[in-house]
Amino acid sequence: MLPTPSPSSPRRPAETKLAPSILACDFTRLGEEILAAHSAEYLHIDVMDGLFVPNISFGFPILEAARRVRDTHGSGQVLDVHLMIERPERYLSEFARAGADSLTVHVESTPHLHRCVQTVRDLGRRAGVVLNPGTPLETLTPVLGSVDLVLVMSVNPGFGGQKFLPQTYERVATVRRWLDEIGSVAELQVDGGVSADNARQLAGAGASVLVAGSSVFGPDGAAAGLERLRQSLGSEIGPEARL
Fold this sequence. Notes:
Strands 1-8-7-6-5-4-3-2 form an eight-stranded parallel β-sheet. The radius of gyration is 17 Å and the shape is globular. The longest helix has 14 residues, at 60-73. By secondary structure, the chain is α/β, with parallel strands linked by helices. The protein has seven helices and eight strands.
């Protein structure tokens, strides 16, 4: 049985960072799309291999291109690479060389999770772990004190534009409490179906970084999408939004 989430110390939504997912952008205008999202703290890059998830996205060339755009224009975004691939330990050094600042691996994707985390840190990058919605949170326990980032998926990974799973709020609150109990400063991300409709409540549950794709890279542009999310996070959390 999972521990009961504590509502005692909600995060201020305005402190929550944003991570636009370029999986949802217009790839004929990749550089322009990245520049339009320059005000975000993170740039989320989803790598899919068609094995761990039923889709194939992109790899080193896109990451290298994103790095060039970021470095040329000095936006300072963290290039946050989410590896939805089997046996990610095979490619960690290559993704680090291609420009990743942060590398996040699924607990379900490798029998060597601790080794992956240590390898990423040895490469001088931020090490993250991620769980699918159906994976027990307890699988985090062996590495929770060793990571720089925990990502809680709020949809089943593989495709953008999916519907947000409401049980995510409780899962985020539980992981937040665990991190606080051990004094961890790791970021707590949420990815999947994030929008202006749920961003404030996710922040109140303890998320410190929100990954958003289609709600950022919409028809009116990334700048407008980011502004909508910021407006939804703009007021202090109230009792009605706490778990």
